[in-house]
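Running log. JK asked me to keep both predictions on one page so they can be read side by side. First protein, sequence followed by its tokens:
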Amino acid sequence: MPKTLRFNAFLMNCAGGHLAPGQWRHGPDAAASYLDAEHWTNLARLLEAACFDALFLGDVLGVYDVYGGSADAVLRSGAQTPMNDPFPLAAIMAGATRHLGFGITASSSYEAPYVLARRFTTLDHLSRGRIAWNVVTSYLDSGARSLGRDALMSHDQRYDLADECLDICYQLWERSWDDAAVVHGARDGLYADPAHIRPVRYRGRYLQSEGVYQCEPSPQRTPVLFQAGGSARGLAFAARHAECVFVGAPTLAGTRKATAQVREAIAAAGRDPRAVKVYAMFTVIVDADDAAAQARLARYQAQADTTGAAALLAGWTGVDLSRHALDDPLEYVDTIAGQSALAAFSKLDPTRRWTVRDAIDYVALGGRGPVIAGGPATVADALQAWADEADLDGFNLACAETPGTYADIARYLVPELQRRGAYPTRYAPGTLREKLGAASARIDAAHPAARIAADIDRLAD
């Protein structure tokens, strides 16, 4: 029996394409239609018809200004700039669909947990339980300065703050309101019973919160929790909190190592590593046959904006690549930015040595994930092999052309995988958490969300 593969679409609410800088300049790419609500509702319907788990919306706060010390490169190329808030898109698309999930990237570093919790509860209500939170800690110094900070907090401190943020959110979502709190009794005039509603009290090193949560419980209460940290501290955070983890590495060996690290960290944290879904970042270019797909790939590569790609990679790693010769080796160094991007090229697979030029050319189409091009059978073979050999549950699929890449996947690849019994033909009932295989809409009782919420008066050290 073949493994059932799972797909997420991976996009941003931005102008120039998410991980394909420069493609917006060439028809029929429609990435520049990101300001049009119909662009997003049409995409959501397309993905739902193809049984994607979710549309995963990435986000960053700040602009990519590490390359050359300014934002000029991303502004000229449209590389993830300009970019809008992803939250409103979920509400728009939820109204146009019935099953598709929506993963929203939001930073724990700059907003009060109460505000974040309220936003996610609202979306979970409006979508009838189809919302996920991709928890990020933000890695751009420009974002910290734009939000009134003198500088970016250190890498590990941002995760320490994120732990406190999640602890507060868990109490708000899981314990402030009992299941019996909402009465909605028109006859006796009682909407909510105060006897079943408790204030949250939390005081930590970085954050504090006290008061009654103003939102009644949503279908999932706690949204499905996604995470993508690849550093030692990021893995510890994912092991404690994540229900789904994204990994990204350019080689099979690197992806296999990243997945193993995730599952080992989860087991070490006392959780079932098989209860956590692992998705790898990928770009799939599929057409009627191998020749047509390879021709399409060659066209995309010729159209790529490598300066925009260099600016993105510099922002991800915190290394100003404009100061390096293209043939210099890309070496790992600790920075306060995102450490997993640089590790993907220099630590996860030591058998491959990358130059600066190699890495820029690579991320110009699909970011740091692999690119597979071929006919339906070729691509299906490749994805099944990667899933088996790297112990993956599914793939976080970026696009080279918006929305054409996803239309081709729906037209060519999904039917081939369904014919093999390796892809769903319909959605499971229930919330996003249930569609992903959980027995309940509520987060598992063994998860810290449930354990922490049992003590609403907990005071952090």
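And the second, directly underneath as requested:
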Amino acid sequence: MTNSSFRISDAEWQVMKVLWEKSPLTASIIVEYLKLETSWSPKTIQTLIARLVKKGALGVNKGVSLNQYYPLVSQEECMREETDSFLKKVYGGSLHLLIANFVKNENLSSKEIQELKNLLDEKMK
């Protein structure tokens, strides 16, 4: 996604999660997975799949009897993109403000505080 940045909606994110777990999958299998988690109609899910293909987030293997879909972007890439977008929108791009707000307003356990310290210590190396 770094080359061609695009946004994935919350609904599209649900489709991507299915395919990040297992792929390639046909649209009917994606529908079956999402019917367990959502109240969406099969037509809605197929529309989401088509939008993700158009955006370049999903690829289609048309060499088989049924189209099979697979992710063209990793979950990590999408998480980075979402984090960057959130950081810019809510905190004006300031990671410091985000972390300060998080630390001040969350009830962190001693273990979580230690894990954060360890992450920062690793970053310093």
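Observation for JK regarding the second prediction: The domain at 10-71 is CATH 1.10.10.10 (Arc Repressor Mutant, subunit A).
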